[in-house]
Each structure stands twice: as C-alpha cells, then as structure tokens.
Amino acid sequence: MSAFLRSLAASADHRPDQVALIGPDATLTYAELHRDSTAAAAGLVAAGVRPGDFVALHAEKTAASIVGLIGVMRAGAAYVPLDPTAPPAHRVGLLDDCAAPAILCTAARADALRAGVPVSVLAVEDLVARGRGETAPEMPDDPECIAYMIYTSGSTGRPKGVRIPHRALDAFVAGVVPSLGFTADSRCLNTLPLHFDGSIVDLIVPLAVGARLTLGPAVMVPSLVVDIIESQEITHLTAIGSTLTLLAQRGELAARDLSALRMVLTGAEIVHPGSVQTWLAAAPNLTVFNGYGPTETTVIVTAQRITDREPGRTRAYAIGPELPGCHICFLDADGVSTPDGPGELIIAGDQLMAGYHERPDEERRAFVEAHGELHYRSGDIGSRSADGAIHYDGRRDDEVKIRGNRINLNEVKRGLESHPGVGQAFVEAVPDGVGGLQLACAVTVLDGLGADLVRRLEAHCAQVLPRYMAPRSYHVLETLPKLPSGKPDRGRIRALLSPEP
C-alpha cells in the first residue's frame, strides 16, 4: 500500500480536526480531506477509471484540485497535471500522448474545458457527491504502480512523460521529511504550480506528515506571499531560486516578523547567494536548503544546509550531500564512474522514475549501469569536494567552442552573478555576423548601477573571467522571461540575445 495514502488515512483517524489544507475555495480538515478524496476515488471508478489509467488534472491551485489529485491515486490511477495556462493545442497533445480517459477540473471550469478537449471532463465536486454513495476502492498495493506523470521537455522537441511510481514517491518522502525537519506541527506554504514537479515537496510532503498546508496564490505577488508567511506564521517554504530572489527583492523582508520561519528549500536553478543571505538576515531561526534533482529522480536527491550569515557573499553554494537512499557518482568523458568526479552526475536509488511514457529510445539513453546499480544520467556536470558536498558546474550541453576556446556557459553566468548588483544572468553563444560565434548575456539588476551599467559589468568580467570568456553584448532586463513552471524561458531569452538575421 502507498505510504503516502496510508499516512493520510492515519491523520484522518488520529487528528481528524487538524486543518490539512487552506485553499482559495475551502479549508479542509484531515477527516474532510480523506473523506472527500476517498469519495472522489469511488466516483472515478464509477465513471470508468481503472487502476493503471492516466487521469489528467487541469491543475489549478484549489482545495478541490487537491481532492481530485489524491482521489486519482486512491483509485489506483496516476494523475497527469496539466498547465491551466497552456494553449489548448498543447493540452490536447498531452491528452493524446497519455491516452487519458478523462480530465479532472473544478466545476467552475468544466463547461469551458468540454468545448476544447476530446475526452470526458469530470468535475471534482460532482465526483465527490457521486462517490459518497459508492464503495471505496481498494488502495493500490503495488509499489511500482504509477502515482503521477509529469511532462518535461524532450530532446526531440516533443514533451516526454516522466512516470513516477509510488515506490519512488514514498522513498522521496521518507528521505526529505527528516532531512528538512517536516513534522505534524509544521505550517507549510505551497508556492509552486501543480504541474511543476517541485510541488511534490510543498504539497505531498506536508500532507504526508499531517502538517497544515496553505495553497499560495497562482500569481507570485511578493507582498501577498510574504503577508501569508507572516500572518500564518509559516514554518516551511519551498521556492525556486528566481522566486526566492523576487521575494527578497520586493517582499520588504526586513520589515516583517519572520521569526516563525524555520526552513526554506530552494533549487531548480542556481540560487543567488545574496538572496539567501537576505532571507537569513530577515528570519532569525531560518535554515536554507539548496536542493538539486531532476524530475526523473522525484524532485530532489541532494540538499545543502545553509545557516551561516555571510553578508556580501557572492560565492556559489554547493548543492549538498545526497538525501538518505540516494547515491550519486560521476561519469567522466571516457565513461568511467568515480565517486568524486568531476564528471556527469549519475543518480541511483529508489527515487528513480519507472521510465518515460512511450519513449523507449530516450529511456534507454537515460540510464547507465554503474557499480551494479542502474543510474539515471542527469546531463549535469559536477564534483564532490573533500567535505562531501556536491558542487554543480553546469550542463553537458553548456559547453561551446569560440575561436578555439572551449567555454562553459555556466561559468560565464556565475562570473556575471558574482557582481553584487546582478540578480540573474543568462549567457548564450550567438552568431557574430561573420560566420563565427560570440557570447551575449541578459542580466537582471538587484540595485541600480547607473547609466554606465555596461561599462561596470565589462570591468567586473575583466576581473573574474578570462578575456575570451567575457560577453561581447549585454542586455539588461527587469526580469528574465519565464516558463509557466517559473524556470527561465531559454527559448525566448535566446531570441532576445540573437541578432536580427
């Protein structure tokens, strides 16, 4: 039986009146969440959903959506969260790929969705009402039963579905709960969209331990988010690196009472050291964790503990040691694995995905055998230092050759972000107009650098980078274009940096 589903049932039995979920549409206790999600599961079975099916979820951040999400797993099916802001054609393409028999949504969205999708549209509220008169289905007891499938960008240009079984989900929860200090008394804030794999850590994990979970706003308004943290005395927060920086820049943290905040987990992109220090200065009892992990390995597999108050720090943080049950080694250019690297991070453990949905060729390329275990090839480059900390050094595909010099774009990015006034940087190799390449960068600025911004950045790069690694053009942006997940939209940024044909 799924440990996550079992823990929800236990919380409903032992702490029935404990608030489980605060959403924009409803507040539910653990007894109510268990009752409604069990009814939703029965309603799904009555509607024809069978164990092993993929059920799409129009993933809005509401209490009803969470009831539906849990109901899908409770019925032995796998939920497939879809971006509610994505174009209809994208949604239809994913539905076709996973052959979902139905898409779940809230009652308020059902009519609009029915006009645009080729499958049955089921309103969660209707399923709950229908399921209360039905026999509850048996809980899934196969650890390889798929819990959810999240689509990520594929190397072929087609999104690929990452299938995460209950075995991996339960191993992740078991590793992250003690490492990050989640307890039944935690008060947690969800900031991530439900179609982003990071939502597992700020949605599933709090509910797995019987904590109180508040669903954050769909639109990341810094003042509103920090208001919630302060007024609800949030103890646990997850925020990707750019969100952490946004809140540090515009949330007026120094003017808030953040004494209740105990843990912030960040990651998904390189975190700005100055933003981490802003949070540590504003919250006296806070520990920040810098996490790392591909979707294929169930959210994060490492977490670096950060407690030192170091105003003015610009040195990048490590991504930490492994979580319990995860194992990382490094594959060098000759395909030889070593415990400390440098090389490509390859990851083993129970958190590994079951595979890609109907992408056998990509699935074969994703894994490698090492030391008698199957490892996932992350495509990320790093090494382990003498203290056991793992350091991220960019992507395999972040290397370019310009005028005979091999350049790692992540190294240039780090050089730019080491300037105390730069928030985020993005570096790309673009045509130089004469048949070669040159480096161009986009930066966001934490503090105004004045009219001579470019001159100052050029001078800074001359100090921290070899001359051949210095960008030839600079683009200053208020914010980097983002994907719906919150990660930088690399395609749009590249278009901004590339010269007109």
UniProtKB/TrEMBL annotation:
It comes from the Bacteria. The lineage of its organism: Bacteria, Bacillati, Actinomycetota, Actinomycetes, Micromonosporales. It holds the Pfam family AMP-binding_C. InterPro entries: AA_adenyl_dom, AMP-bd_C, AMP-bd_C_sf, AMP-binding_CS, AMP-dep_synth/lig_dom, ANL_N_sf. This is Amino acid adenylation domain-containing protein. Residues 416-487 form the AMP-binding enzyme C-terminal domain. Residues 9-357 form the AMP-dependent synthetase/ligase domain. PROSITE patterns: AMP_BINDING. PANTHER family: FATTY ACID SYNTHASE, NONRIBOSOMAL PEPTIDE SYNTHETASE.
